[in-house]
């Protein structure tokens, strides 16, 4: 089976590359993946794979039934959406839509999962069980396509016992893959805060309520949520990336606007932290006579890789590409809506190395120069097919 999959991966890799180029050149933003979904659906039809279109808008869900199809079911997930970024790469497959770019590798995930689908469909009389293919919309945008697909019943009829997802990793050299058992990625909540005070002349602060000075206190005090209230064993981050106040050297503004993010890996603590943030913000503002308008918008939950499943997948990966090419990953405080699946069932979210320093392919995800070493495509689809069969 292993050598079968390897040779099928080699055979389909040039196509996967073409599909990736097509999807990369025609990126679509979250929940608007109409053409991408149609492209996926057309390929699945060509392969003769049963599938359903329009799940949670633009999702495509396919089924490959092997022998004894009800005996066990695994789901494979690939996300399809692009980002609002203007591509700076000068490549033949450059985005044809100014301001929209596949800068997170979801073009790679979609085209690879098509490759996996083709491989597994060739082998369906050689493995037991069913493979559910989930081509997912809207990973990059809250509430996340994963949560919408789950609401629409993607984990039912038939219900998979486990789910596997693959994501590119530009920090990891091409040829390698990374796994982590247990806690892997963070929950991410968005903080939106407007502080209303009273503007005035910068020379006469006694007649004003200075929102700039109050915001400075708020930002400083909130750091203690992480440094003093969080259990040191629980990873937590609180960062503000936007602070906007439009006064002048001698003008105190009426209001100030802040945006930030709170990330952690523990649901009870996450809820407590939200309360603490609110209490500190409102307390400080009130004590200075200002009014706080605070919204904490909940994003994705934390992502936990099922230890048993992940160990099994890692072992299978070692068989596929060798011990020296399988690495252990660190905790990562970014967020991923694959986490919704892992809250429902055993899941394994692993990383595909795409970096090549010699070729100058080093840019991070979500940057205008992100790209991959396409040698990763053959490994990506062959390995995922192998993991599914295992
Ligand atoms: Zn992303
Ligand atoms: Zn991504």
Quick description:
By secondary structure, this protein is an alpha/beta fold. It has nine helices and 16 strands. The radius of gyration is 24 Å and the shape is elongated.
Tell me about this structure:
By secondary structure, this protein is α/β, with parallel strands linked by helices. 36% of the residues lie in helices and 26% in strands. It is built from nine helices and 16 strands. Strands 1-2-4-3-5-16-6-15 form an eight-stranded mixed β-sheet, sandwiched between helices. Strand 3, helix 3 and strand 4 (130-136) form a beta-alpha-beta unit. The longest helix is centred in the first third of the chain and has 24 residues, at 2-25. The radius of gyration is 24 Å and the shape is elongated. The protein starts with a helix and ends with a helix. The relative contact order is 0.19. The model has no long low-confidence stretch (mean pLDDT 97). Bound molecules: zinc ion (2 copies). One zinc ion binds next to loops.
- Number of separate strands: 16
Regions with pLDDT < 50 over 5+ consecutive residues?
none
Give me the strand/helix succession: HHEEEHEHEEEEEHEEEHEEHEHEH
| Order of strands in the sheet with most strands | 1-2-4-3-5-16-6-15
Proportion of residues in extended strands: 25-35%
Distance between the termini: 10 Å
Structural class: alpha/beta
Overall outline:
elongated
Report Rg: 24 Å
What is the share of helical residues?
25-40%
Enumerate how many helices there are, as a single number: 9
**Ligands bound to this protein structure:** zinc ion
Overall mean pLDDT score? Answer: 97
Question: Could you give a short account of the major beta sheet?
Answer: 8 strands, mixed
């Amino acid at each position: 089976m292993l050598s079968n999959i390897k040779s099928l991966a080699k055979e389909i890799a040039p196509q996967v590359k073409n599909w990736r180029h097509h999807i990369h050149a025609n990126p679509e933003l979250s929940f608007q993946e109409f053409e991408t979904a149609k492209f996926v659906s057309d390929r699945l039809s060509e392969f003769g794979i049963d599938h359903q279109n329009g799940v949670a808008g633009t999702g495509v869900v396919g089924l490959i039934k092997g022998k004894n199809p009800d005996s066990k079911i695994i789901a494979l997930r690939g996300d399809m959406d692009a980002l609002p970024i203007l591509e700076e790469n000068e490549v033949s497959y450059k985005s044809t839509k100014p301001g929209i770019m596949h800068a997170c590798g979801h073009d790679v995930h979609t085209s690879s999962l098509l490759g996996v689908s083709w491989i597994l469909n060739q082998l369906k009389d050689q493995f037991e069980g069913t493979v559910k293919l989930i081509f997912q919309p809207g990973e990059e945008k809250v509430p996340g396509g994963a949560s919408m697909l789950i609401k629409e019943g993607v984990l039912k009829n038939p219900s998979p016992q486990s789910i596997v997802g693959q994501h590119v990793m530009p920090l990891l050299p091409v040829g390698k893959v990374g796994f982590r058992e247990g806690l892997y990625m963070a929950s991410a909540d968005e903080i939106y805060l407007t502080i209303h005070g009273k503007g005035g002349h910068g020379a006469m602060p006694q007649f004003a309520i200075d929102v700039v000075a109050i915001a400075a206190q708020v930002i400083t005090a909130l750091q203690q949520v992480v440094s003093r209230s969080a259990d040191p064993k629980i990873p937590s981050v609180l960062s503000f990336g936007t602070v906007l106040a439009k006064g002048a050297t001698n003008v105190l503004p009426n209001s100030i606007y802040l945006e930030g993010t709170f990330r952690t890996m523990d649901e009870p603590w996450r809820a407590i932290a939200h309360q603490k943030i609110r209490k500190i913000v409102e307390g400080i503002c009130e004590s200075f006579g200002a009014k706080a308008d605070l919204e904490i918008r909940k994003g994705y939950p934390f992502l936990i890789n099922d230890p048993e499943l992940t160990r099994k997948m890692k072992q299978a990966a070692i068989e596929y590409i060798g011990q020296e090419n399988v690495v252990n990953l660190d905790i990562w405080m970014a967020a991923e809506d694959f986490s919704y699946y892992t809250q429902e069932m055993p899941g394994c979210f692993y990383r595909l190395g795409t970096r090549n320093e010699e070729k100058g392919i080093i840019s991070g995800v979500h940057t205008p120069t992100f790209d991959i070493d396409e040698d990763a495509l053959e490994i990506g689809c062959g390995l995922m097919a192998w993991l599914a069969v295992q």
